[in-house]
From TrEMBL:
PROSITE patterns: CHORISMATE_MUT_2 (PS51168). Coiled coil: none annotated. Keywords: Isomerase, Signal. GO terms for molecular function: chorismate mutase activity. Its EC number is 5.4.99.5. GO terms for biological process: chorismate metabolic process; salicylic acid biosynthetic process. SMART domains: CM_2 (SM00830). Gene3D superfamilies: Chorismate mutase. Pfam families: CM_2. This is chorismate mutase. It comes from Streptomyces spectabilis. Residues 34-129 form the Chorismate mutase domain.
């Protein structure tokens, strides 16, 4: 019988693709911090990369951010904490708006991109909660620390803000949509994303171009 991928397997895959997951796992013997590992392509290089490389960096960072949705979903599952947290969302949007100005980017378009990033994250969380409700044996057996996962989200947010600022001319170019589609497909295959995460990745990116 088909069995839904466990959270541990997903976390392993997230680590394998290089997403930092400094996750505090709560266990009977106390808290164990998983190792923090390297992340996506160096964003400092994004401004030197060509248009396709810049868009691939944006897609890769968006996939990094989406990988955290599995951990957030596990952190909230069975706790009564809602998937939607409007206060936290506002904090994220205020922070990225400030960071965009610091990075020489456009705060309005940065906020638009992050609204989509947040919707994509919640899309994954909702789907996983539905899966776990339908098949409790597939539900996570460990609960990540939401505060630690949010630290990781904040870190990816900062990288994404800087990558957006560094790719401003590419993002308003007429070829942006086509290149972004190709870059998204590349990241999907390189990361081995399943249908849910591939769908969410597309949901994360429609405001990048234009
Ligand atoms: C990721 C979380 O879940 C939702 C998605 C958010 C995001 O993508 O930044 C923020 C708040 C929540 O609405 C969270 O609660 O931290």
């Amino acid at each position: 019988m088909h069995r839904t991928t466990s959270t541990a397997a997903r976390l392993g895959r997230a680590l394998a693709v290089g997403v930092t997951a400094a996750v505090l796992v709560l266990g009977g013997s106390g808290a164990v911090a998983a190792p923090a590992v390297r992340t996506a392509p160096a964003v400092g290089a994004a401004s030197h990369a060509g248009p396709y490389g810049q868009l691939r960096t944006l897609a890769a960072l968006s996939a990094d951010r989406l990988a955290t949705a599995d951990l957030v979903a596990a952190a909230k599952y069975g706790t009564g904490s809602p998937i939607d947290d409007p206060a936290r969302e506002q904090q994220v949007l205020d922070a990225v708006s400030r960071q965009a100005v610091e990075a020489g980017g456009d705060p309005e378009s940065t906020v638009r991109v992050f609204r989509d990033q947040i919707e994509a994250n919640k899309l994954v969380q909702r789907a996983l909660h539905r899966q776990w409700d339908a098949d409790p044996s597939s539900a996570p057996t460990e609960r990540p620390d939401l505060g630690k996962v949010r630290e990781e989200i904040n870190r990816v947010n900062g990288e994404l803000v800087r990558a957006l600022a560094a790719s401003a001319p590419t993002r308003t170019a007429p070829y942006c949509d086509g290149l972004l589609t190709a870059a998204t497909a590349h990241v999907r295959h390189a990361r081995g994303l399943d249908t849910l995460h591939a769908t969410a990745l597309r949901r994360a990116l429609p405001s990048v171009c234009g």
